[in-house]
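re: ur msg from earlier - yeah i can do the 6-O-phosphono-alpha-D-glucopyranose complex, just paste it... oh wait u already did. ok heres what im feeding in:
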Amino acid sequence: MCGIVGYTGHRDAYPVVIKGLKRLEYRGYDSAGVALHEKTLRVYKKMGKVADLEEHAVGKDISGKTGIGHTRWATHGEPSDRNAHPHLSSSGKLAMIHNGIIENYAQLKKELTQKGYEFKSDTDTEVLLNFIDEIKQNNSCSLEEAIRVALKRVTGAYVILLLDAENPDTIIAARKGSPLVIGVGKGEHFLGSDASPMLEYTKEVVYVNDYELAIVKPDELILKNLGNEKLTPYVQKLDIELAAIEKGGYDHFMLKEIFEQPRTIYDCLRGRLDASKNKITLSGIEQYAKEICAANRIIMIACGTSWHAGLTAEYIFEECCRINVEVEYASEFRYRNPIINPGDVIIAISQSGETADTLVAIENAKAKGAIILGVVNVVGSSIARMSHAGAYTHAGPEIGVASTKAFTAQLAVLSMIALKIAQLKGTLSAERINTLLNELEAIPEKVESILANTEPIKKIAQQYATARDFLYLGRGTNFPVALEGALKLKEISYIHAEGYPAAEMKHGPIALVDENLPVVFVATKDSYHEKVLSNMQEIRARKGKVISVITEEDETAANLSESVMQVPPCDEMLAPLLTVVPLQLLSYYIGVARGCDVDKPRNLAKSVTVE
Ligand code: G6P
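and the outut:
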């Protein structure tokens, strides 16, 4: 949450920072601001999106070769001009941006207020900034030293970037619990919450770790720990192309990402799966093969859409590997003193690799001796680094706030892990494994065929775009898909939607059914099919509008539905990789029909780095 950008070098900082902020807007977009330095330190900030900030800055002095910028997802204080970052210290000499939460800010604020400080905003950021400035002035020390002292008192999570009026070309940055990447160029450095702001200038990056401080000048990058010891920056080469973070002719990132799925699933399987040889290669996971096979329990930990991937994988793992699986919301797991037994294996699932709750949950479990495997999309992210081993999902950058291609890539990876373990444990016959591997290999092509026929989905979207509520129902592996369909719809269209196991619907939600309620069934031909058809009848008997995702040419299901979205036949274990796609499209088209900003839905952020 919140995107941060910094630049110091030979270019004009403002355009670099603005462009970078636009790339990071997926992290938050309720206000934005920049601080620029050249002779004088200037701050411009505005409620709204980065485009509003640009308008606000027209005609103002935007010169300067050093600058920092911020796009906000509000935590302390409503979205407004005065709560927008950067903040200026009371002395006017320091400007700071911050991503994270300072948990003990109230205590620090009290101390500063007693010393006569007044605050212009409601933010924890302004408090920390003045706390740093106070230490700097009191001790007549350098900004770097003041930050080090201040951070020892701070509890919470942060990435902070500071400009000092007395030190025109230097940005000082520090991190704990929120991401920070530094791009290394020739006579210039870039800073960002992720690598996207620097991608068109350099591919050499340094990932800053927790409790590290960076002093960044055009020609020099000094990395230190909070004990003031110098560290050697580890420069890595990025493996992302610029095209991957641009819309490429699509109206929205979300649509582009939905349409990328045949490719991203293929990329995820490539080099790992060879059905002709009945072979799965997942080197990260194989290092821990013995421990996983011996595990009594696998705990999947995740949030949001990634949690739905875990829930789907529960069905697959239990069926294929005969291991007990529990799926946990990271935010609940981390706080309830969970029981971790020796030999428990944890699978952390995360697109961003930065979700604060997931990160802390696995950190705690690791301290208690659990083996942590990461199923993560962003290479080098905090969760990937915290894990003992894992398998990247290789879906490429996902920019639309509502997750789509990351979900199918997670399912593809989790399916491969389950099949690998089943193979090692001998819990599935070689023949059954071969059938499933062939099915997996065929998924990209089948997704392609769903995407080739979007007209019926567009029509359904037009018809139901004004509905007030939706109910999504499914059984077996299609139950988590129903949850995911409902989540997608509420995220981007703001229509209230609930997902339920189709049978459980009788224990409550059926009371909602009338002629105005669209009920989406995920009803492909599987072992539950007859039962789901009966559930459809129950909805029809109460005049609910049945919309269904069905297997091609399933006339029985089609006859029970007002509208259908079809997917090719598929083994039920892997069906979610197909059935989720029409639901993603349905949400997208409904969101667009309602005039919603589908890539940046209100109040949401893509990377939730606060708990
Ligand atoms: C946010 C995003 C969701 C995502 C969830 C978990 O809520 O808007 O799309 O599923 O975080 O994020 P992660 O990066 O850990 O998968």
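cool cool. The chain has a mean pLDDT of 95. ping me if u need the other ligands too
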